[in-house]
């Protein structure tokens, strides 16, 4: 496993705790054939259904880190699986399907927020969904501070930190997911961690 420093551990623990909401993660998708005969070469619907069983909860948690509307998160994941169903027959290495889905969800979430819809930026990440019995979640004060600081970061920095410390992706995988160079990922991670440390240090001193 790649090395994680003390701040990385705090980020990872906060993200895992924040995502540990079990009950509302449910998405239903309808797979509709498009008439493409190449889909018959393998069981597309079975493949997508299996991916859904294996990946849907993780993807919903990932989406939930970027949008504070849980219905919007579910919509993003549903759209990701619809796109997978349409293009699964064109994926040469199907072991890469989870990375393909992550890429779709992250980019859909970024588009969602850029359009000025329900965005987590400049808002408390805990503004909704906590308090109901289904969403019961206890976060330590330190984890709340980390999440608050994380959501004040610029979009690219926040995306890179989440993919690095929650999804545990490597530099190359992050670069492929968000469509930037390895050097850009390294820069966003370094600046994001520095800004996060500054915010947390300032908060501790006040």
Fold blueprint:
Elements: H1 6-18, H2 44-64, H3 70-87, H4 97-114, H5 141-150, H6 155-165, H7 171-178, H8 182-205
Helix pairs in contact: 1-5, 2-3, 2-4, 3-4, 4-7, 5-8, 6-8, 7-8
Considering the chains and any ligands shown, give keywords for the structure.
206 residues, mainly alpha, Arc Repressor Mutant, subunit A, 60% helix
Structure in words:
The chain has helices at 6-18, 44-64, 70-87, 97-114, 141-150, 155-165, 171-178, 182-205. It starts with 5 loop residues before the first helix and ends with a helix. It is globular and about 60 Å long. 60% of the residues lie in helices and 0% in strands. It has 2 domains: 1-20 and 137-206, Arc Repressor Mutant, subunit A (Orthogonal Bundle), CATH 1.10.10; 25-136, no CATH class. The protein is mainly alpha-helical and 206 residues long. Helix 1 crosses helix 5, helix 2 (44-64) packs across helix 4 and helix 5 crosses helix 8.
Q: How many structural domains does the protein architecture include? A: 2
State the helix count: 8
Oligomer: single chain
Q: Kindly state the mean pLDDT as a whole number? A: 77
Rg measurement, Å: 18 Å
User: What sequence of helices (H) and strands (E) makes up the elements?
Assistant: HHHHHHHH
Kindly estimate the percentage of residues that lie in beta strands according to DSSP.
Answer: under 5%
Record field, number of beta strands: 0
Low-confidence stretches: 31-40, 118-137
The best one-word shape is globular
- Helix fraction, binned, reads 55-70%
Distance between the termini: 36 Å
Structural class: mainly alpha
Main β-sheet description: none
């Amino acid at each position: 496993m790649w090395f994680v420093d003390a701040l990385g551990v705090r980020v990872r623990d906060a993200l895992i705790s924040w995502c540990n909401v079990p009950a509302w993660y449910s998405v239903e998708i309808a797979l509709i054939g498009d008439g493409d005969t190449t889909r018959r070469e393998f069981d597309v619907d079975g493949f997508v259904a299996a991916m859904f069983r294996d990946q849907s909860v993780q993807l919903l948690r990932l989406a939930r880190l970027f949008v504070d509307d849980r219905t919007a998160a579910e919509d993003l994941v549903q759209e990701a699986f619809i796109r997978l169903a349409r293009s699964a027959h064109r994926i040469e290495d199907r072991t890469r399907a989870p990375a393909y889905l992550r890429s779709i969800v992250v980019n859909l979430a970024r588009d969602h927020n850029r359009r000025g819809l329900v965005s987590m930026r400049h808002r408390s990440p805990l503004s909704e969904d906590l308090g109901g019995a289904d969403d019961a979640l206890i976060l330590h004060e330190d984890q709340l501070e980390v999440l608050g600081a994380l959501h004040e970061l610029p979009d690219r920095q926040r995306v890179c930190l989440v993919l690095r410390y929650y999804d545990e992706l490597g530099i190359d995988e992050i670069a492929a997911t968000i469509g930037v160079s390895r050097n850009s990922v390294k820069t966003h991670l370094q600046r994001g961690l520095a800004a996060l440390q500054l915010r947390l240090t300032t908060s501790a001193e006040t």
